[in-house]
Specification:
This protein is mainly α. Helix content is about 50%, strand content about 5%. It has a single domain, classed as Glycosyltransferase (Alpha/alpha barrel). It binds 2-acetamido-2-deoxy-beta-D-glucopyranose (8 copies). One 2-acetamido-2-deoxy-beta-D-glucopyranose (NAG) binds next to helix 13. This is D-4,5 unsaturated-glucuronyl hydrolase-like protein.
Length: about 425
C-alpha cells in the first residue's frame, strides 16, 4: 500500500521528472522575510550577493544594476501565495504584496537620474510585476515608461543596438549579451503607450545580437564593440568570461531567455531558432556532474567555480523556450517536453548541490565576477530565478507545490 502511495504521483507527471522539493520549502518565505527585515520600510540599500564564508547579504545603494531583483522576488512570493498557499509558512499574500510595493518604492528616485545605462530594464522588473497586480497603478506606469525611454535613448540607428556600457571613447559602442534581458521594458512600455518605435528598437537590437554575439555553434561572446560612427564591428571579446573566445555561462543563459522572450513578444522564427541554438549549446556542454561552470571553457584545474545563478537563469530560459514550442500550431510537444526536462535537470542538480539552509541566500556557489575574484557567494538574481522557476513549474502543471506533503499526496491520488 505504501509503495503504491509513492508510485502513483510519479505516474501523474507522465515522464517529466519531478522538480526538487526545496523549491517550495517554507525556508523560502522565512529567509526572504528576514532579508526584507534587514532594511525595514522603504529601503535605502538592496542585497546583491553574500559573503563567501557566512552567506550574509552585502547591501548596495539603489543605483545598482541588481536593485530590482529583491523587490521582484517579493512580488514573485505574492504570486506564489496564490499558486501555493500552503508553502507560505506564517506569512500572508497581503504581506508579500505590501513588501514588494514598499521595497520597489526605494527605486523611484532613480527615474529622473541614474547611472544604470542599459540596466534600467532590470530595475523595472518590480514595476512590471505591479502592473500585473494593478494595471492602473500610475506609479508603476510612469516608472516603466521612464526606464524604457532611458533605454531607447541609448539606441543608435547606425549600429542598430542600444548601447550597454558607456566608454571613455564614445565611438567605442559596447554591447553585451546581458542587454537582451533589458529589452522587455521596451515591450511593456510599447504596450502602455502604443509607441511602436520601442518595439522596433528591441527587434533591431536582437537581430544585431543574433548576428554578432552568437557564434555559428550557438555559443556567445560576452561583449561586441561597434564603431558608433560607421556601425562596423571592431571587437568581439569577453569581460566576465575566461577568454575572449570562450562562452561565459551566465551570458549564454541571458541569451536563451532573451531570444525566447523575443519570440514570445514578436513571433519571428529567427529569434526562436537563435534561442534553440543557444539552448543546444548550453545543454550539450553541461559537464557530467550537472554543475554549471562559470565559463564553459574555463580549465578544470584548479577546480573551476560554478555559477548557480547562470543555472537558474538557464532553467527559466529553457522553461520559457518550452512554452514557445508549446505555443506553435500545432504545438511542438517533443520540443517542449525536451526543454522542460532539461530545465528540471539543471534545476535539480543545482539545488541538490547548492541549496544552503544555513545562509541568508537560498543558494550558494554563485559567481558574480570571476576575473574580479568574486565567486562562491549567494546572489540575489540566482535566488530570484529559483523562486520564479518554482512558480513557472506550478503554472505549467509540471510541479505541485505541496507535492511532498502527506496531505498533497492524498490530494493527488484521490483529489
Ligand atoms: C503602486 O505601485 C507602487 C510601487 O510600485 C506602490 O508603492 C503603490 O502602493 C502602488 N499603489 C497602488 C494604488 O496600488
Ligand atoms: C516613441 O519612443 C521614442 C523613443 O523613446 C521617442 O523618441 C518618440 O518620441 C516616441 N514617440 C511618441 C509619439 O511619443
Ligand atoms: C570609428 O571610426 C572613426 C571613423 O573612421 C574613427 O575616427 C574612430 O577612431 C573609430 N573608433 C574606434 C573606437 O575604432
Ligand atoms: C502586450 O499586450 C498583449 C495584448 O494584451 C499581451 O498579450 C502581451 O503579453 C503584452 N506584452 C507585454 C510585454 O506586456
Ligand atoms: C582579450 O583581448 C584583449 C586584446 O587582445 C586582451 O588585452 C585581453 O587580455 C583578452 N582578455 C582575456 C580574458 O584573455
Ligand atoms: C521542436 O523543437 C525541437 C527542439 O527545439 C526542434 O528541433 C524541432 O525542429 C521542433 N519541431 C518543430 C516542428 O518546430
Ligand atoms: C561550493 O562552494 C563551497 C564553498 O562555499 C566549495 O567548498 C565547494 O567546492 C563548491 N562546490 C562546487 C561544486 O563548486
Ligand atoms: C575564486 O576567487 C578567489 C578569490 O576570491 C580566487 O583566489 C580564485 O582564483 C577564484 N577561483 C578560480 C578557480 O578562478
Amino acid at each position: 500500500m505504501f509503495a503504491l502511495l509513492f508510485l502513483l504521483p510519479l505516474a501523474v507527471t507522465a515522464f517529466t521528472p519531478l522538480p526538487p522539493p526545496q523549491l517550495f520549502s517554507t525556508l523560502i518565505p522565512q529567509k526572504l522575510l528576514a532579508t526584507a527585515q534587514l532594511t525595514p520600510g522603504i529601503p535605502s540599500t538592496y542585497p546583491q550577493y553574500t559573503t563567501r564564508d557566512t552567506g550574509a547579504w552585502l547591501q548596495f545603494g539603489p543605483n545598482t544594476w541588481t536593485t530590482g531583483f529583491f523587490p521582484a522576488t517579493l512580488y514573485a512570493m505574492y504570486e506564489r501565495a496564490a499558486l501555493c498557499p500552503k508553502s507560505l509558512g506564517r506569512t500572508s499574500a497581503a504581506q508579500w504584496l505590501e513588501l514588494g510595493r514598499t521595497s520597489s518604492t526605494g527605486e523611484i528616485f532613480l527615474e529622473p537620474h541614474n547611472t544604470l545605462q542599459h540596466d534600467v530594464g532590470f530595475v523595472s522588473f518590480p514595476f512590471v510585476e505591479e502592473l500585473g497586480v494593478n494595471p492602473q497603478n500610475t506609479t508603476a506606469i510612469t516608472a516603466v515608461n521612464m526606464f524604457a525611454s532611458d533605454l531607447a535613448a541609448r539606441f543608435s540607428p547606425i549600429v542598430g543596438c542600444t548601447r550597454s556600457w558607456d566608454s571613455a571613447d564614445p565611438t567605442d559602442f559596447q554591447v553585451i549579451i546581458d542587454n537582451m534581458m533589458n529589452l522587455e521594458v521596451l515591450f511593456v512600455s510599447a504596450n502602455l503607450t502604443g509607441n511602436d518605435t520601442l518595439r522596433q528598437i528591441a527587434i533591431s537590437h536582437a537581430d544585431k545580437t543574433m548576428q554578432n554575439h552568437v557564434r555559428a555553434d550557438g555559443s556567445s561572446f560576452h561583449v561586441v564593440d561597434y564603431n558608433s560612427t560607421t556601425g562596423i564591428v571592431i571587437d568581439q571579446r569577453t569581460s566576465q568570461g575566461y577568454s575572449n573566445s570562450s562562452t561565459w555561462s551566465r551570458g549564454q543563459a541571458w541569451g536563451i531567455y532573451g531570444f525566447a522572450n523575443m519570440y514570445k513578444n514578436v513571433g519571428l522564427q529567427r529569434h526562436l531558432d537563435t534561442a534553440r541554438r543557444m539552448a543546444a549549446y548550453f545543454i550539450d556542454h553541461m559537464p557530467s556532474d550537472g554543475i554549471v561552470p562559470w565559463d564553459f571553457n574555463a580549465p578544470l584545474d584548479p577546480p573551476r567555480p560554478a555559477d548557480s545563478s547562470a543555472a537558474m537563469i538557464a532553467t527559466n530560459g529553457l522553461l520559457l523556450l518550452a512554452q514557445q514550442e508549446q505555443s506553435l500550431s500545432p504545438p511542438n510537444i517533443t520540443g517542449a517536453k525536451y526543454y522542460n526536462e532539461q530545465a528540471i535537470k539543471i534545476l535539480t542538480d543545482t539545488t541538490f548541490a547548492f541549496w544552503k539552509p544555513q545562509w541568508q541566500s537560498l543558494l550558494s556557489n554563485g559567481t558574480v565576477n570571476n576575473p574580479q575574484l568574486n565567486n562562491l557567494t549567494g546572489i540575489v538574481y540566482g535566488d530570484y530565478y529559483f523562486v520564479r522557476a518554482g512558480n513557472e513549474l506550478v503554472k505549467s502543471g509540471l510541479a505541485k507545490c505541496d507535492f511532498f506533503t502527506f496531505s498533497n499526496l492524498i490530494d493527488v491520488i484521490f483529489g
